Amino acid sequence: MWAQFDDGNGYGNYGNGYENGNGYGNGYDQDPNNPNRKGTWGRDTSKVDRTVPTEYYQWHIDERLGTITRQEFNDTLPHLFQNMNATDGYRGEYNILGNLGSPRYARNFLDRKPVDDFMFMNPYDYFHTTPGSLLFTNTKSPVTNLSYHECGSRENGQDRFRAYFATNINKQAGLGFKVDYLYGRGYYNNQANSQLGGTIFGYYLSDHYDMHAMVSWEHTKMGENGGITDDAYITNPSSFPRSVSSKDIPTNLSDVYNRNDHRTLYVTHRYNLGSYREIEVPDSLKPVMPEDGELLMRITSDSLLEVIKADSLRLATTLDSLRNQWQFENQPQREFIPVTSFVHTLHIRRQEHTNYNRSSISEDYFGHAPYIGTSYGRFGDETYATSIKNTFGVQLREGFNKWAKAGVTLFAAHEYERYKLLTPETTDTEDVFENYNRNHVSFGGEIQKTQGTAIHYKAGAEFWAIGPKAGDMVLQGTGDLNFRLGKDTVRLSATAFFKNLTAPFYYRHYHSHTLWWDNNGLDQETRTRIEGTLSLDRTLTSLRFGVENISNYTHLAVTHSPNYNTDGTVKSYGTSVEVRQQAGSIQVMSATLKQGLHWGIFHWDNEVTWQHSSNGDVLPLPMVSVYTNPYISFRIAKVLLVELGGDMRFFTDYYAPDYAPFINQFAVQDASQERMKIGNYPIINGYVNLAIKRVRGYVNFTHANQGTGRAFWAPHYPIDPYSVHIGLSWTFYD
Q: Helix 312-329 and helix 302-310: axis angle, to 10°?
């Protein structure tokens, strides 16, 4: 049941039922004395009814050192299940290209993730599985969840199938796997894409030794159409002599594709030194040695008991044995207190990115001749990246005595990276590669407090000492404070960081037919952020505020160069992409208010985000983004849970980042040329969610307000026309 906890992949935490956590509702056919059994009314009671335990818990791990973060159970089924499969996010907070499975880009600045050295999987974060996003499961019975989502026809349909399975080998070890397959044909031409991924994971947890491991393989293939040729097909369809369907609208590109293959091997394990101590219990709860007569009742043979009582020596010996047995059975429970842990983490990644074309592209599209080869005919540009990272750490564990209010960790890491890029010697028939080998060594430490209920915090630092990243540093910390205020629970959380980092590898070097740069002179980018969140549980209120300052902001930018006719007039503009670094500083401020309302069966969820960028040409942001979702929630026959409502996404117009199809990334528009604004257009969906026992389903009517306006998710990439989406999720035990 993935809708309860979203991890960025769309795989959320499972629940274990809908009402009492056992997989059964509160209908009449249930034994009130044992909620784990069905009632016997109307059944053959001569048959044995086997009860299947359904309890389990889940956790994430920290990628660096494998520290466990327990996930709390929060059964919100079937809330927002209709948006679980949406590429634009649960609340429409991402810019996309319209199609299911397309690349995406966070519209809210505070939600944007850092650009990774292996950046080509960044736009597919809803599909990409990282060790930190994977959910490990400890379950009493094998648990399986299957979900399927689909819409459209054979020509434009979108389908996604996901499976998650977890089981325990014993109380200490478990394993599982997940599979994700997505195929989006697309409502517009030349944008079909497919994704297939699989992950196998396992763990072992004991007092002295812990281990988590995962192996994953992911493949994405994206058809690139370069957007539609004329935005008036969407903004002013009446200007054309006849109405056209989405498939009739011409696009800028065809037979252009981006393909990514990503593989991960991850193992983190630790050895714990510590001691055992008795669990303290009040004297009133401690067991008391029974009287002699009660001890003798353990002897079930009456004849043997008479013989023992008749012999005083034998009676004394028997009582001593029974007392020893009772003391062994009732010895105080002990718990293991880890004092020091020695940790090792191995993280291997392998990525292959290919951009290829199967037809001919006019040089006017680019405004420059190909950097390698002789033409923009059939080509396939490849780049490879490999990373092998070992991290070693020593932890002084939190709570090993009453004075240890926090845990302290020291670690060192070595990462070997290898990149392969095309060289100028590449021809139309032969690829020639150059290898870039890099070694990085970093050191760091953390201090954290996770125990208790009132205050938690974590602060850490990492410094790179050897390699191309020498001089980089990251200082960051998080904390939260929880306290009661009247009948409400107030939660205050804060995050702050200072980062001084070298630009990602592909921002410094990239070689292909269509794009080429070597930026060895890029300065380190410096970011400083302070962010806080205030939450009130009872009033369903949350306020988040953040400020960030960025120096030497490094980003991708689209550029346009004129193509001239023979008479010197401009006939078109060629498109390219380059890496830019903004001198000076850029300030960003952001505030998000979430407010839920509830009257009887009526619910109304609202989220409003305000943002401001001091340089909208380089870092454009919509001033206001809104998500609102009124719905009613009720039960039919006390067993079928229904949510019926409609939600709306809206953001004010702004010069949103364009999409660069030949590098599979979003890039800011060229401020020196005519630009396109998107936004000021509501996107309204209507839906019904259904849930009964372990089955959920939905019907979602998307873009119900289709009409004239800026109906774009990104410049020149329209929102899909009105369509009907359906989905089903089913959880099995044993």
A: 120
Look up residue 395 and give its two tokens: 């932890």
Task: Give, as one character, the DSSP assignment of residue 523.
Answer: P
Q: CA 661, CA 193: separation in Å to the nearest integer?
A: 13
Inside any domain, residue 44? no
Which among 270, 239, 7, 3 is positioned nearest to 128, based on CA atoms?
A: 7
Same domain (yes/no): 550, 520: yes
- 570 and 704 belong to one structural domain: yes
CA 361 to chain centre: 37
Whether the CB-CB separation of 107 and 657 falls below 8 Å is answered with no
Query: Where do we find the tokens 């790179």?
Result: 464
- Domain hosting 627: range is 56-275+336-733
- Judge contact between 733 and 143, C-beta under 8 A: yes
pLDDT at 300: 76
Q: Are residues 221 and 327 in the same domain?
A: no
Whose tokens are 């009247």? That residue is 486
Q: How far is 655 from 676, CA to CA, in rounded Å?
A: 6
Q: How far apart are CA 147 and CA 162, in angstroms?
A: 5
Burial of 618 (0-12, 13-18, 19+ CB in 10 A): middle
Q: How many domains does the chain have?
A: 2
The pLDDT tens digits for 596-616 are 999 999 999 999 999 999 999
Provide the 3-class DSSP secondary structure of residue 29. Answer: coil
Average pLDDT (77-90) is 89
Q: Quote helix, strand, coil % in the chain, to nearest 5.
A: 10, 50, 40
* Pair 652, 624: CB distance under 8 Å: yes
E strands, 652-722, in order: 658-660, 665-667, 683-692, 695-702, 712-714, 717-718
Q: What pLDDT was estimated at residue 135?
A: 92
- Last residue of one domain, picked from the residues 298, 331, 364: 331
The one-letter code for the residue type at 463 is F
Separation between Cα atoms, residue 298 and residue 292, nearest integer Å:
10
162 found inside a domain: yes
In three-state secondary structure terms, 493 is strand
How many alpha carbons lie under 13 Å from residue 546 in its C-beta half-sphere? 24
Cα torsion angle, 100, 176, 112, 575, sign: negative
Check if the beta carbon of residue 610 is closer than 8 Å to that of residue 621: no
Residue 412 and residue 409: Cα distance in Å, rounded?
10
Please indicate, yes or no, whether the overall pTM of this predicted structure exceeds 0.90: no
